[in-house]
Structures are given as structure tokens and as C-alpha cells.
Please model this.
Amino acid sequence: MNPDSDPSTLTTAAIRRWSTDAVPTGQRLDYWIGAICEGFLEMEATSPSAARFHSSLESARLGGIGVNRVRGSAQDVYRSAGAIAKSRENH
Model:
């Protein structure tokens, strides 16, 4: 049996965490854009509550899949032509 196909043998890899709490309030949305680009893929984000913005991302590999937990302020996340051009992978 392949150990990766048996859920009882899967171990949780290191969890990567990003939180806007790590930076001053005025820099949080810019920090978040960097976090989602690093954690997912090249994207842009805006928020109607940019002055009070806060979010966090936790990401880990579990066997052959990635598991992500995202929490935070209201936001619009989208891929612009420029973000697509910067992508390292073809999604």
C-alpha cells in the first residue's frame, strides 16, 4: 500500500503562517497582497476597509494536497493581466 494513500499515515507538514498583525496598520493591505502571492499565486487585492484591514493565512501540505485557511476583512481578490504575466506557473 502506498503510504500517501492511507490517511492514518499522513503527517502534517510545517504550517506556514502570514498575518497582517506583523506589520503596522498602514502597511497591512500591501503585506497581504505579498502573502497571497507567496501562498497561492500572483494576485491583486483591494478592500473597502483598507484603514482597518486585517487578515491571516495558514497553509500546509497534507499528502498530495494543499490545505489553506484564510480569515480576515472583506476584500476583493482578482488576477490582473500584470499578475498573470508575473506567474511562475501556468494556472
